[in-house]
Amino acid sequence: MITYQNLYLEIRRMLLKAGFPGAGLEARELVCCGSGKSREEFYRDGSMYTSPEITDAVRKLAQRHIDGEPVAYLLGEWEFYGLTLDVNESVLIPRVDTEVLAEAAIAYARTVEKCRVLDLCAGSGCVGLAVAANVPDCRALLGDISEPALRVCRQNVRRCGVAERVKTAVLDALEPPPRSIGDFHCIVCNPPYIPRAEIETLERSVKDFEPYAALCGGEDGFDFYRAVSQKWKPALTEGGRLYFEVGAGQASAVLRLMRGQGFGDLNILPDTQGIPRVVYGTILSEAVI
Predict the structure, then answer these.
(1) What pTM does this model have?
(2) Is the pLDDT of residue 140 over 90?
(3) CA–CA dist 145, 152 (Å, integer)
(4) Distance (Å, rounded) from C-alpha 242 to C-alpha 279?
(5) Cα–Cα distance, 94 to 104 (Å, whole number)
(6) CA distance 187 to 281
(7) Would 41 disulfide with which of 37, 100, 166, 172, CB 3.0-4.6 Å?
């Protein structure tokens, strides 16, 4: 027999040996997942003995993670901008870098009365949901071409309690927007942006588990930036904003693309590591252009 605390320490040692920098946090989450306990119950019951079934379940989860499977998919949920969201292998795992995109869009949406926001290439819906959760009078549409991703979106809309203000739709970011969706004050887009040839160089946990279609941005990684900045302009109101997340080293090129499409007031925002991560611009009137 083994206590929950000792099981946690065993899993933590396994993950440290395998080279996981977040071994302590991940070990706790795996013990909670395998035992069905909340974090509070885990801390409360640390000195209690587990059952053989629970011990076996936690060890198997740990081994799956060591073999490459991300903790978020093992748990079936992940934290993003204060929200706990459902995730599975149909969607990318929300990352801290993307919170820069959410924070910028939230700040803008707060300046527009009844702001209408489109989260394009929405995946789990994390960015649009963060905006909706933090700007009570805004309305949001979560759009993605993948129906499995939209199922996750709908689950998260319900989980966040914003179903009255947030809807989902099948939208192809590479094609012009359907007129039926109307126009928006703000479009946020975290598109696929990894060049095709670089996919195989990614960590196994990414290339083997996260959805390929949500990673690959075409031969040079810019397919979606070109299409959205050109084809989705009609879906923005005059004075509306387009916000992109970009990969490392892509910011300047995306800014030039947006400038070429008539966007003004262009800006680049860094992530927490100082890497240029968000590019945004404004639809200007013809007189200003």
Answers:
(1) 0.92
(2) yes
(3) 13
(4) 8
(5) 16
(6) 10
(7) 37
C-alpha distance from residue 4 to each of 27, 52, 57, 64, 96 (Å) = 11, 11, 13, 20, 29
Query: Where do the H-state alpha helices sit in 4-140?
Result: 4-17, 23-35, 39-44, 52-66, 71-75, 98-109, 126-134
pLDDT one-digit tens code per residue, 142-152? 999 999 999 99
pLDDT at position 1 is: 84
Record the tokens describing residue 279, joined without a space: 């590019």
Q: Which pLDDT does position 40 carry in this prediction?
A: 94
Q: With H, G, I as helix, E, B as strand and everything else as coil, classify residue 283.
A: strand
Task: Compute how many other C-beta atoms are within 10 angstroms of the C-beta atom of residue 129.
Answer: 27
- pLDDT greater than 70 at residue 51: yes
Question: With b meaning 16 or more CB within 10 Å and e meaning fewer, what string describes 163-198?
Answer: eebbbbbebebeeebeeeeeebbbbbbbbbbbbbee
* Residue partners of 51: CB distance under 8 A and separation at least 6: none
Q: Which residue, chain included where needed, has tokens 């009844």?
A: 114
Cα–Cα distance between 64 and 42 in angstroms, integer? 21
Burial of 137: CB neighbours in 10 Å, binned 0-12, 13-18, 19+: exposed
228's tokens: 């959205």
Q: Other CB atoms closer than 10 Å to residue 134's CB: what's the count?
A: 18
Which of 129-138, 197-206, 222-231, 248-257 is predicted with the least confidence, judged by mean pLDDT?
Answer: 197-206
| Distance set, CA 1 to CA 7, 29, 52, 54, 221 (Å) | 10, 21, 7, 11, 52
Amino acid residing at 179 = R
